[in-house]
Design a protein that fits this description.
By secondary structure, this protein is α/β, with parallel strands linked by helices. The chain has 13 helices and six strands.
């Protein structure tokens, strides 16, 4: 049970009210899961995608409609001069407004500015969001994170970065097409790599390399021996990976600030996720002011199920390759997993492999 549902149990709500709240909470979770995987399957998902990626659309239904048509119906929208006959074919603005109202009013996601919420009659003190006032259309950094090593010599946190968020939806669409071409409908898992499917995983790596201008991979590791509170240490490592990763992308000019940061982490169970997401959110918001001079805006941190998210699965492949490299004498073996690990490491780190990783060094690699 999540916080929203539990809160309704404690406020004297009737059974019908609680059931309605539970239904809305479930719908909200499902929507966020689909957005995390760029899996926009209906007009409601598409409206949420636009509201999330284009904050200026949260205040204006006209701006929302124009951005929606330009993104999802470009053949009808053209260059912005809409032929009269196409007006009957575009998704009606009233439909988009209805979905926008549900997303903002029922789910309390991607809220309009305070001024507009007052005018719309939906301002509630408890739902004021400090980030709802940041309307600048800054570029986004989207990060998918995974962790491993709870029973190994090293703890590891691996992250997959999409540094040009405009590519997120296109990357998902291309990946769906690639899956169809390869006839590969299963999850991506490093543990499943074998001689029979190695060629498919190497083809996936080629797919990622070809889109290297918009993505990167980053990892942090530390020895597990002597550590206590392993979950807490992994949370610390994820925070450091994100903070240093933002610094790295800014310093190299690949993703200069200001930026909006969105983080999706592999779910570790409801109780653990609740604590991890809250702590990480608090620390990243503090870093926004104290480290990045308010040039980094945190959109949100969300835990997602890896089975439903291709991008978290890609982070798993990367992390599995690094882990194999570390624990198999620099992946010198002949198993299919060793070959994939070598290919992954060489692709993002070069032929020199990972240097200094035994000294708890963050290694940033990009194609």
């Amino acid at each position: 049970m999540d916080n929203e549902t539990k809160a309704n149990e404690d406020d004297g709500s009737t059974d019908d009210e609680r059931k309605k709240a539970e239904k809305l909470a479930a719908q909200k979770r499902e929507l966020l899961e689909r957005l995390a995987n760029a899996n926009v399957i209906n007009d409601g998902d598409r409206v949420a995608w636009i509201l999330n990626r284009h904050p200026e659309t949260r205040d204006s239904d006209v701006t929302l409609a124009l951005q929606f048509w330009a993104t999802f119906e470009p053949a009808l929208f053209g260059n912005g001069s809409i032929p009269a006959q196409n007006l009957y074919k575009l998704t009606p603005q009233t439909t988009l407004t209805r979905f926008r109202a549900k997303i903002q009013n029922d789910f309390n996601l991607f809220l309009a500015t305070e001024k507009v919420r007052k005018r719309r009659g939906k301002l509630e003190e408890e739902h004021r969001d400090i980030h709802a006032e940041a309307r600048e259309a800054h570029p986004w950094l989207v990060v998918y994170a995974d962790e491993s090593g709870k029973t190994d010599d090293n703890l590891l946190v691996g992250t997959f970065w999409i540094i040009d968020s405009g590519q997120t939806l296109r990357l998902k669409q291309d990946l769906d097409a690639w899956r169809k071409l390869q006839d590969f409908n299963r999850e991506f898992h490093f543990k499943d790599v074998n001689a029979g499917n190695l060629h498919t995983y190497l083809a996936l790596l080629d797919f990622l390399i070809a889109r290297g201008n918009a993505i990167s991979f980053k990892v942090l590791t530390m020895p597990r021996k002597g550590l206590t509170d392993i979950p807490g240490k992994l949370d610390d490592m994820l925070y450091q990976t994100l903070k240093r990763g933002v610094e790295h992308e800014h310093s190299t000019g690949r993703a200069p600030l200001p930026r909006v940061l969105q983080v999706f982490k592999d779910s570790e169970g409801e109780a653990r996720d609740r604590v991890s997401v809250a702590n990480l959110t608090e620390r990243l918001e503090a870093a926004s002011a104290g480290v990045f001079d308010k040039k980094l805006t945190l959109a949100y941190v969300h835990a997602v199920e890896s089975k439903d998210n291709d991008f978290v699965q890609i982070a798993d492949l990367f992390l599995g390759s690094v882990n194999r490299y570390l624990h198999q004498n620099e992946a010198s073996g002949t198993h299919a997993k060793d070959e994939l690990a070598r290919a992954f490491i060489n692709a993002f780190c070069g032929s020199g492999g990972i240097n200094g990783i035994e000294n708890d060094m963050v290694t940033f690699g990009e194609f």
